[in-house]
């Protein structure tokens, strides 16, 4: 009995004296104030996604717009304008390129539509831009789709990593 008690004490001492498991450390976060959603915009609560050298987060959607006006022009939609508000981030250590003209809007029936150049220019949104290391840019992507089409997703394409000709793109639902 003494021997059993001694063994139990030794085992207990050895298991309780080992190093404590490391606790995962959380990095501090920025304190950014919440912002109100723009007039006629629906907030999108999508998780960030990555494609190529870019990380994207879709944050807003406007659809059913019959026309747009910019600083120098007003322009009617052929169908309806749809605006997708997106944050583009370069988490890398060198500059990457964001090309708005590669981005696609996917409608409920599976058709895809590219960014509308005229709308993008009129609203003074970038079509192609260099994104520096560690830089985040928030912008609108403007699409002109048929009046009765329903936006379902946006397919986003980042800059391909060095040595790759293209990326597969990543689809983000707009709900």
Automatic annotation (TrEMBL):
It holds the Pfam family DUF4352. InterPro entries: DUF4352, Immunoprotect_excell_Ig-like. The keyword Kinase does not apply. Signal peptide: none annotated. Residues 48-156 form the DUF4352 domain. PROSITE patterns: PROKAR_LIPOPROTEIN. Keywords: Signal. The keyword Phosphoprotein does not apply. This is DUF4352 domain-containing protein. It comes from Nonomuraea africana.
